[in-house]
Design a protein that fits this description.
148 residues; alpha+beta; Thiol Ester Dehydrase, Chain A; 3 helices; 5 strands; elongated
């Protein structure tokens, strides 16, 4: 699988009283990375919703190994590790200040659904672009993002 890197800086408001990134912000960074991943493929999430396609989170996990703090440069390395008829799984590695050792790893599973929140098939155009991106050497480099 190929990866997509999303970079952001830890803002002061994203830290807690101890001066480290608040744990829930990792899920916000995961969401931003997913959104930009789709945008890179030519899909804008708000356009999905206008067409009646929603991607609710069915499962989310994050394992924290080291902290990040104010002004650290965060890279969320994102890969689609599984795509099924109506669901998609994203795996993430969070890197700090261009390091190579993850400070956190996680994943989210999303179920494609209509407005009634009943599962529906992934649109074929999206599925084929995600599968093609997984083979695109210009998108990124291979990496193991499985949480341990």
């Amino acid at each position: 699988m190929k990866i997509f890197d999303y970079e952001t800086r830890v803002r002061y408001a994203e830290t807690d009283r101890m001066g480290i990134s608040y744990y829930a912000n990792y899920f916000v960074w995961f969401e931003a990375a997913r959104t930009e991943y789709f945008r890179t493929l030519g899909f804008v999430y708000s356009e999905f919703e206008k067409e009646g396609i929603f991607l609710p989170v069915a499962e989310a996990h994050c394992r924290y190994m080291e902290p990040s703090s104010y002004d650290d440069l965060i890279t969320v390395r994102t890969v689609v590790s599984q795509i099924r008829q109506s669901s998609i799984r994203f795996d993430y590695q969070v890197l700090k200040n261009h390091g190579t050792k993850p400070i956190a790893v996680g994943y989210t599973v999303h179920v494609f659904s209509g407005q009634n929140l009943k599962p529906t098939r992934i649109p074929e155009i999206l599925k084929s672009k995600v599968e093609l991106a997984s083979l695109d050497p210009n998108l990124s480099n291979p990496v193991d993002t499985k949480p341990r």
